[in-house]
Amino acid sequence: MGPTASGKTALAIRLAQELGGEIISVDSALVYRGMDIGTAKPSHDERGGIPHHLIDILDPLAAYSTGQFHKDAEALMVAIRDRGHIPILAGGTMLYFHGLSHGLATLPPANPSVRETIAAEAQRRGWEALHQDLEKIDPVAAARIHSRDPQRIQRALEVFRLTGTPLTTLIARTQKKSDGPFLKLVLRPADREGLHQRIERRFMAMLEQGLMEEVGRLFDRGDLHTDLPALRAVGYRQVWSYLEGDCSREAMIERAVIATRQFAKRQMTWLQKETEAQVLFSEDPQLLGRALSTIGTQQL
């Protein structure tokens, strides 16, 4: 686990090579095809011959839930162990990690009819008005969900309309945890300023590698929009706004870097709750050896 730009992918690949492992991506953006540069998706060469799972499995038009990740990851862990290999879960979507280790509430599956009704209401009244509706029925969820987060507003309202019970109440009920056990490693930079510099350098490198062209291809499809989970990924949303003519290139870069820093801060807040995790530092010249040493004391 770790914040964006901390070096998780490279370390996971090295560990897999040393331990006979296969990597399960824990990243809500890497699941999408055609989104390679902006997600820092490892190329086939960079993967070093290590099998990677839950990468390039969906079109950006599709949605991928925490519940679906939980189901897919559980099946993959069993299959990888059956092959005599070690499952290595690596990524920065903390909600996915949390679902595996702490459990998921049993929630109703998505209902297309209810979702279409809510989306139509949003078209007429706006998502902020629907967020106000959510405040009345589930103030705890409304405080957690931003008023400009249509996916989560829609899901919270959908759950209430299907069950008559607030999402917060359902989440608090019995949850199904993964069988585990897990050895948790947190990879993080030694200081925040260093991480900020890495984030800025990485985004500028993405632009040089063709991020604008990559987003342009998605933009030109004509069937995608920024309310989709895929296009809310940091970097993509800001470049999309630039392509729509909403900001200058300089403003786009500034917004993307700031948004990525804010994302990393949220990830770090999640990681502070992982009190049983072993912390490793990105800048450690003995990083691989230290990680192997930590793993060596556990029963895998």
Q: Overview of this structure, please?
A:
The mean pLDDT is 93. The protein has helices at 8-19, 66-82, 94-102, 112-125, 127-137, 139-144, 150-163, 167-172, 192-209, 211-221, 236-243, 249-271, 287-296, and strands at residues 21-25, 52-53, 86-90, 104-105, 175-176, 185-188, 278-281. It is mainly alpha-helical and 300 residues long. The strands form three sheets. Strands 2-1-3 form a three-stranded parallel beta sheet, with helices on both faces. Strands 4-5 form a two-stranded antiparallel ribbon. A two-stranded parallel sheet has the order 6-7.
Major sheet details: 3 strands, parallel
User: Structurally, how many domains make up the residues?
Assistant: 2
Strand tally is 7
Give the C-level CATH assignment of the largest domain.
Answer: Alpha Beta
| Basic shape | globular
- The fold-level CATH name of the largest domain is Rossmann fold
Round the Cα radius of gyration to an integer and report it: 20 Å
